[in-house]
Amino acid sequence: MPFSHHSHSGQFCPGHARDSLEDVVLVAISKKMQMLAMTEHMPRHDQDRYPEEIDAGRTLASQFDTESAYFAEASRLREKYRQQIELPIGFEGEWIRPESADLVQRSIATHQYDFFIGSVHHVHTVPIDYDSEMYQQARQISGGSDEKLFEDYFDAQLAMLKALKPPVVGHLDLIRLMSDSPNGSFKAMPEVWRKILRNLDYISSYGAILEINTAGLRKGMDEPYPKLEICQAALERKLPFCLSDDSHGVDHVATNYGRLLPFLDEAGITTLSYIRRGGFAQGKIDHRFPYLGVEDVGLRELRSHLFWKSLETPNH
Q1: Which PANTHER family match (predicted)?
Q2: Bridge partners (DSSP) listed for residue 241
Q3: Closest CA to 193 of 185, 181, 201
Q4: pLDDT tens, position by position, 134-185
Q5: Mean pLDDT of 174-197
Q6: Mean pLDDT (whole number) for 6-13
């Protein structure tokens, strides 16, 4: 699949990712990718900084400066390489507390972004994918079990969806990453599964795209985000899907895309969506982003793309 709707660089996410944004773009071009969306993290309130950000003295004000520098560099790269690859400019939104919505709205109002990804990385304001200690802290607040934390996570996700209505919903089941059974079935937890289906219904109600994200494979899980059972439930609701590598540096670009074809076949997914910038796209999905369009492509057509010849191994 020659598209990714989710990427980061060390240039604008120091300590969290590696390499310059331009180097990430150049690797995507070398792999014959058709589109790479640039989606650095949005600013977060001072109380929500990660430990390395506190040590580095990063503040909300400095994050605003970083965001402006990111948008300027992304705009330069989009123009420089426009004949070689499509480079939509977006950001990855956060939902940590209700006030997070204010920062998302500020980003949209300040910069002419093409779209954003709606993600949840925190429950009870505690990061749930940073390290095991923080995950366990969030789990303890929820009542001491993965099941209770999962319930709280999907409740937080619904609050994010209702408040922000993101055009693309990122790694829907990220919560399983550091759980005791990251490859277990959500259906074994009836209340968790009910909340997942509820969230899928809401995503469908306002017309968002659900991201299939290969970072789960990169981090040792058996399936990408979201799991097969969630993809099948989303397909029953006629939700569209897009693809992402969630790269955090040049080594991650398009990793594990070769493992997606059998996964998509098993799920029964025959069509994928991808975003495009400009009025030539088939449809519009969000009035907040006048340049955002979406197109669909069948898997049969994608299988013939030159991108596949760039993969070093079938599982790369």
Answers
A1: HISTIDINOL PHOSPHATASE-RELATED (PTHR21039), HISTIDINOL-PHOSPHATASE (PTHR21039:SF0)
A2: 210
A3: 185
A4: 999 999 999 999 999 999 999 999 999 999 999 999 999 999 999 999 999 9
A5: 98
A6: 94
For residues 27 and 252, give the distance between their C-alpha atoms in angstroms, rounded to a whole number: 10
163 residue type, one letter: A
Ranges of each domain in the chain: 3-310
Is the model more confident about 99 or about 276?
99
Question: By the 8 A CB rule, do 25 and 264 touch?
Answer: no
Contact indicator for 11, 21 with CB cutoff of 8 Å: yes
The DSSP annotation for the chain comes to --EES-B--TTTSBTTB-S-HHHHHHHHHHTT-SEE-EEEEPP--GGG--HHHHHTT--HHHHHHHHHHHHHHHHHHHHHTTTT-B--EEEEE--SSTTHHHHHHHHHHHS--SEEEE---EETTEESSS-HHHHHHHHHHHTSSHHHHHHHHHHHHHHHHHHH--SEE--TTGGGTTSS-TTS-GGGSHHHHHHHHHHHHHHHHHT-EEEEETHHHHTT-SS-BSPHHHHHHHHHTT--EEEE--BSSGGGTTTTGGGHHHHHHHHT--EEEEEEESTTSSB---TT-TTEEEEEEEHHHHTTSGGGGG-SSTT-
Q: Which CATH class name applies to 3-310? A: alpha beta
Q: Is the pLDDT assigned to residue 246 strictly greater than 80?
A: yes
| Of 265, 258, 274, nearest in space to 310 by CA | 258
Taking residues 293-310, what's their average pLDDT?
A: 85
**Mean of all residue pLDDT scores within the chain:** 93
The answer to whether 32 and 257 are in contact (CB under 8 A) is: no
Whether residue 219 has pLDDT greater than 60 = yes
pLDDT band at 279 (very low <50, low <70, confident <90, very high): low
Within 10 angstroms of residue 268's Cβ, the number of other Cβ atoms is 11
Six token digits for residue 153 = 């996570």
